[in-house]
Write a structure and sequence with these properties.
By secondary structure, this protein is an alpha/beta fold. 40% of the residues lie in helices and 22% in strands. Helix 4 links the parallel strand 2 and strand 3.
């Protein structure tokens, strides 16, 4: 947690870089294409500096952001002062059963040690029929290999991360009780092609076919009625 407190401003500024803007746009297109819930109460779990909290808020959700890093939350609160941001542990969420219509968690699962327990908490706080959307880096992607190698020489968040494959996440969600589990992925061709226009075209064309090797994967599941 101390590491994430330390890097909070730098983490937030990355979204303003050329690659950061592209990755953010590409990830959001995939994430929101998989969300079927259009309104209601939403939990942004592992909200960081509020990137997805803002997007959920804009789309009309009554959203709450949760993160363990107080420095990340300070930045998020400045962006959305009317939204509730709570410092809390994903292993023990401070909400009653059946509270949310949607739980969204993007790039948090890499940094937890007991995914089964967190998925159990997500399942608990969801309403029957509510959906969970988990976005995370793929352990089989070239992007992951590059980031992992870089972390050996420069301290990055990836040094502390655990990565999953689509099948691993699907299995974990099914074991937690979720139904209608499905996954999709994107490649991040910008890491190989400097022309972002070409990269975007390649991402859209090949990502579904190469899902198991995509850099970023999203898994969706529904809580049983």
């Amino acid at each position: 947690m101390e590491y994430f407190n330390k890097i909070a401003p730098r983490y937030d500024e990355w979204y303003n870089t050329k690659v950061g803007r592209y990755v953010d746009k590409t990830e959001k297109r995939l994430v929101f294409s998989m969300i079927k819930t259009k309104s209601g109460k939403a939990l942004d779990l592992g909200c960081g500096t509020g990137n997805y909290t803002i997007e959920l808020y804009k789309r009309g959700f009554e959203v709450v952001g949760v993160d363990v890093s107080e420095e990340m939350l300070k930045i998020a609160r400045k962006k959305l002062p009317t939204v509730k941001f709570i410092r809390a542990d994903a292993y023990s969420l401070p909400f009653e059963d059946n509270t949310f219509d949607l739980v969204l968690s993007v790039t948090m699962f890499e940094f937890i040690h007991k995914p089964e327990k967190v998925l159990g908490e997500i399942y608990r706080v969801l309403k029957p029929g509510g959906e969970a959307i988990i976005g995370t880096m793929n352990g089989r992607s070239l992007w992951f290999l590059f980031k992992r190698l870089k972390s050996l020489f420069v301290e990055t968040a990836y040094r502390y991360a655990r990565f999953y494959t689509p099948k691993e996440l699907e299995r974990l969600m099914k074991e937690a009780g979720f139904r209608d589990v499905e996954s999709r992925g994107i490649i991040y061709f910008p890491s190989f092609f400097p022309l972002l226009g070409l990269a975007e075209e390649l991402d859209q064309k090949f990502s579904d076919k190469l899902k198991n090797f995509g850099a970023f994967i999203v898994v969706r599941g529904v809580k049983g009625d």
